[in-house]
């Protein structure tokens, strides 16, 4: 068992527990670090969602990690905390996201770090957004819709 923030992470917890039963450390461990959720999305008049290559300024584009994770909500008004309670509202999460997969009753993918044992497996599987750019460097968002 691993310890994270003084909470025990049960081996293969994602196979043994529902999302609601997971402790905070297990919940956080589900994140594969792809960073896709930290890229800006655009919703058009017909409510069609478009992903962009525009990353939150806190996102390290190379690692897929937030550079200010503990304090992100204080500085980024658009950052939304994914919780057990609001997960149903996050249908925009990528189809590869562990939270979405488990919520939909599907297994984690082979490249997920909890399965592979390596955080590098996400990059090796080419999961993530290519050629990201920080929003501070963007003038016209429409140039970066993917």
Give a written overview of the molecule.
It contains six helices and seven strands, in the order ββααββββααααβ. It is globular and about 45 Å long. It has helices at residues 13-16, 24-29, 72-75, 98-103, 113-116, 120-124; strands at residues 2-4, 7-9, 39-43, 49-55, 59-60, 65-66, 133-134. It is 20% helix and 16% strand. Mean pLDDT is 88; it is low at 1-5. The strands form three sheets. Strands 3-4-7 form a three-stranded mixed beta sheet, with no helix packed on it. It has a two-stranded antiparallel sheet with strand order 1-2. The longest helix is centred in the N-terminal third of the chain and has 6 residues, at 24-29.
Which properties best describe this structure?
16% strand, three-stranded mixed sheet, 146 residues, 6 helices, two-stranded antiparallel ribbon, disordered N terminus, single chain, globular, alpha+beta
Question: How would you concisely characterize the structure shown here?
Answer:
This protein is α+β, with helices and mostly antiparallel strands.
Set out the fold topology.
Elements: E1 2-4, E2 7-9, H1 13-16, H2 24-29, E3 39-43, E4 49-55, E5 59-60, E6 65-66, H3 72-75, H4 98-103, H5 113-116, H6 120-124, E7 133-134
Parallel strand pairs: 4-7
Antiparallel strand pairs: 1-2, 3-4, 5-6
- What is the count of helical runs? 6
- Structural class, from secondary structure content? alpha+beta
Number of strands: 7
Topology as a string of helices (H) and strands (E) = EEHHEEEEHHHHE
Mean pLDDT value: 88
- Quote the distance from N terminus to C terminus: 40 Å
Instruction: Please give the largest β-sheet.
Output: 3 strands, mixed
What is the chains' assembly state?
single chain
- Rounded to an integer, what's the Rg over CA atoms? 16 Å
Strand content: 15-25%
The order of strands across the largest sheet is 3-4-7
State the share of residues found in helices, binned by percent.
Answer: 10-25%
* Low-pLDDT sequence parts: 1-5
The 3D shape can be described as globular
């Amino acid at each position: 068992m691993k310890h994270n923030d003084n909470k025990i992470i049960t081996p293969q917890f994602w196979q043994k527990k529902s999302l609601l039963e997971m402790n905070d450390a297990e919940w956080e461990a589900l994140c594969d670090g792809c960073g896709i959720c930290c890229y800006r999305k655009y919703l058009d008049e017909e409510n069609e969602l478009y992903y962009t290559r525009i990353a939150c300024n806190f996102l390290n584009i190379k690692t897929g990690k937030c550079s200010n994770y503990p304090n992100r909500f204080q500085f980024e008004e658009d950052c939304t905390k994914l919780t057990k309670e609001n997960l149903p509202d996050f249908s925009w999460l990528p189809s590869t996201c562990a939270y979405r997969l488990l919520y939909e009753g599907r297994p984690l993918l082979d490249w997920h770090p909890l399965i592979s044992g390596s955080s590098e497996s996400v990059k090796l599987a080419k999961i993530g957004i290519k050629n990201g750019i920080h929003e501070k460097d963007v003038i016209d968002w429409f140039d970066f819709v993917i």
